[in-house]
Amino acid sequence: MSQPLVTDSPLWSRDALWAGSALAFPVLFLDKTRALHHANAAACALAEKVQPGAGPQALVGLIADSDWQHAFETGYWKGVVRPDPEHPLMLELHCGQSPDSGHCILVVVDISERGERQRQYEELQRTVQRLATTQEQLLRSEKMASIGQLAAGVAHEINNPIGYVGSNLSTLQEYSTALLTLLDRYHAALFSEDPLAGRSEILQARRQLDIDYILGDLPNLLRESREGIERVTKIVQDLKDFSRIGRDQKMQPADLLQGLDSTLNIVWNDLKYKVRLEKHYTPLPLVECLASEINQVFLNLLLNASQAIEQRGTIVLASGQEGDEVWISVTDTGCGIPPEAMPHLFDPFFTTKPIGRGTGLGLAISYSIIAKHHGRIEVTSKVGQGSTFRVVLPIRQPRQEDASPLPSQS
Ligand SMILES: Nc1ncnc2c1ncn2[C@@H]1O[C@H](COP(=O)(O)OP(=O)(O)OP(=O)(O)O)[C@@H](O)[C@H]1O
Ligand SMILES: [Mg+2]
């Protein structure tokens, strides 16, 4: 144990020195010139720790003039006195100075550990930030992967209406040629000397050109073509909504059922040949969320449901509200999930699908999206009968101060 330092200065009463020595905190007694007159055992121990063998004067020497000034004027100072990145030394000074003599009692607290904890906390915050960025990238790449998977389907989906709009346009071109030919005949007759003389010829041309059929078919062709264009526009719009992930970082009230329908529109090509779809929607209030991310969850659940159905089956989409939460469920009559797989469903890279078919990220990403929204995903399943994935979300997000930690996986 270090011995207290005591000079034979008459400046300090024995009582004061005795009281200072008894304290567990490092205490220094200085005169107005900052000369050290007394240091208690704790101060000597601190000095030994900071600079072995240098004595308690070393503590005084560590503090810059301007910082002394501050400590004397305000009674308090805190700062880093040794900016060593490995072991920074951070001290807190509590200072009492006699206004008459300028003598000063100084309590020195080593707060390096507090500083260290602060540093660790900041490091942790940086790590959390890095993780959030990584998660965002993962989300993006998963989205890219699912979009890649869907590209063929979407191309087909767009190709189909484009195909019949194109063929309708050729037919419309033929029809317009016929109509213009007939118009020419009318025109010629109208300006001939005897307009009525050409009447039978015109009627014959009308029959030959199949004008009655054309007039009947024309509205259908136009309606079909308009619908085709609208369908393409809708798919392009839905894809645009999808690619918006991560950009609209602010949660906003959104119509979840509309999101589910747009997502369904995108995957429909994958589903339509083997799936009978049932919708049991109960209208929902607007839900505060990042709509594009929730759509990605729907996409993953719909794709999983479709992939679980081998030949033919049914997917039921349902919704409901319970108190201040809403739920959306996707039920399939697919292969079901064995009990031993249940605990791993949300693990990243857990997949039972062949290489190239599944990455095992769909549910992991969905879980983190829903957790970010303070919701949960509930799963029930029976092997050979099918599965239900139910997404439960709060209608309003908790405010920052009363936000609960991320829900645990169950
Ligand atoms: N509706 C479902 N029916 C049966 N099994 C399912 C269903 N949904 C998920 N699973 C099981 O959970 C696993 C993980 O699903 P997840 O969506 O995370 O990955 P994936 O579908 O295999 O691949 P990815 O979604 O990345 O293309 C699946 O491989 C499958 O075994
Ligand atoms: Mg999946």
Give an overview of the whole structure.
Helix 7 (211-243) crosses helix 8 (256-271) and helix 8 (256-271) packs parallel to helix 9 (291-308). The chain is an alpha+beta fold. The chain folds into three domains: 5-110, Beta-Lactamase (2-Layer Sandwich); 142-243; 247-410, Histidine kinase-like ATPase, C-terminal domain (Heat Shock Protein 90, 2-Layer Sandwich). The protein is built from ten helices and 13 strands. It is elongated and about 140 Å long. Strands 1-3-2-6-5-4 form a six-stranded antiparallel β-sheet, with helices on both faces. A five-stranded mixed β-sheet has the order 8-10-11-13-12. The chain has a two-stranded antiparallel sheet with strand order 7-9. The longest helix has 79 residues, at 112-190. The protein has helices spanning 14-22, 41-50, 57-62, 65-74, 112-190, 199-208, 211-243, 256-271, 291-308, 362-372, and strands at residues 5-6, 27-30, 36-39, 76-82, 89-97, 104-110, 252-254, 275-280, 287-289, 313-322, 325-332, 376-382, 386-394. Bound molecules: adenosine-5'-triphosphate and magnesium ion. Magnesium ion binds next to helix 9.
